[in-house]
């Protein structure tokens, strides 16, 4: 059985990314196919403007949601995608491929293509009673890149990515047993399955799976399934804060929302309603 590919980067990748980020004063991030950050440019790990937006307006979840959405669109397009984020900064994401297999995404971002702060963001900021000058100053300090400069910058970045791949600075390997089990659970989140069944699917033994999961993840198979369902539930609510707990629980395989609430509280030491309330408050404040 095959699962998600795991990526390993040569240390020279970090040096190349940092050098490029330094020259153009941009942030570069390499994501896995699951939109997990694998490599981030150390020269520019994140701008002051973005930190203000995320922290003061409590909108980190919107940034994560947008990154995921743009990577998905990039995958559908199978080409570079340039877009403006909700806070008014421009970013680019492109697919990373080895032998025509998608292995991740490369993102360049947080540069300006306009002179002034978007009116919508200014209005939201003013409603909080905070000093608008701080936000405006942080926005203006972001690098301004005109159309021609952007085209050339992104052309150079595409060449850099191609160089990294052709020089085999990225190593790809197939997942081990625990990674295969996790991948199957994530792909079949609503499917009830026993340890015996997963052992048959993986062509392995019960004891091998149990020992591997315990050693590498600190979980037994049942705990792994519950944790992945809870994480998917939280992701669903974050994407759609107005969805009911009952509907979100059903989407991760729980027909009884009261039973799900007991399981959730046992694992998270808090009720699912408290998580939903937190997400909805963030949405309202933004």
Strand portion, in percent?
5-15%
How far is it from the N-terminal to the C-terminal residue, by CA?
A: 44 Å
The number of domains: 2
* Largest sheet descriptor: 5 strands, antiparallel
CATH structural fold name of the largest domain: Beta-Lactamase
SSE arrangement:
Layout: E1 6-9, H1 11-24, E2 27-31, E3 37-40, H2 48-56, H3 60-77, E4 81-84, E5 90-98, E6 101-111, H4 119-127, H5 132-140, H6 147-166, E7 170-173, H7 177-187, H8 195-202, H9 206-217, H10 221-239, H11 245-251, H12 257-268, H13 272-285
Sum this structure up briefly:
With 286 residues, the protein is an alpha+beta fold. It has helices at 11-24, 48-56, 60-77, 119-127, 132-140, 147-166, 177-187, 195-202, 206-217, 221-239, 245-251, 257-268, 272-285, and strands spanning 6-9, 27-31, 37-40, 81-84, 90-98, 101-111, 170-173.
Description of the molecule:
By secondary structure, the protein is of the alpha+beta class. The chain has two domains: 6-173, Beta-Lactamase (2-Layer Sandwich); 177-285, Arc Repressor Mutant, subunit A. Helix content is 57%, strand content 14%. The chain has helices spanning 11-24, 48-56, 60-77, 119-127, 132-140, 147-166, 177-187, 195-202, 206-217, 221-239, 245-251, 257-268, 272-285; strands spanning 6-9, 27-31, 37-40, 81-84, 90-98, 101-111, 170-173. The strands form two sheets. Strands 3-2-6-5-4 form a five-stranded antiparallel beta sheet, with helices on both faces. Strands 1-7 form a two-stranded antiparallel ribbon. The longest helix is centred in the middle third of the chain and has 20 residues, at 147-166. It is flat.
